[in-house]
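Why do we care about 3D structure at all? Because function follows from shape, and shape follows, mostly, from sequence. That is the central idea of this module. The next example makes it concrete: a single protein chain, its amino acid sequence, and then its structure expressed as tokens.
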Amino acid sequence: MISVERWLKLIAVIHIIGGVILPFMVFTPLATSYFEHLLNAFPDSDIESLRFLVGVFGPTVASWGLLFYCAVGKAFQSKTPRDWWLLFAAVMVWLVFDTTFSLFFNITTHLYINGLVAIIILLPLLKLKAHFQGKGSNDAS
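And the structure:
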């Protein structure tokens, strides 16, 4: 069975890869239904503007994945409550604001995407909360 640390790092790597691919994927047929959904929500938009906005979001997703990968590594090294709360907060800030903002603009697809991603990150993290009781230290050893 895969460890929670490896699972969370895998999710981070998927974000990195997906974020790097996203600027290219916006020009493929795979994105057609998503853009149709966006055009329904924003009828005054044009497809090229939407491609730009979604495509430029890709590097942000990749960057979040890189930072999350590092944060997971540190958290599982020290296992302090503060580190656990950092991981939890990183997910919750994204989840609450992205989902609320998306729903405000009637982008319901994000509710399902965000819900799935939140479940695959938060359930393992919540399961291990009690294991994050380390004292933590500032030394480099």
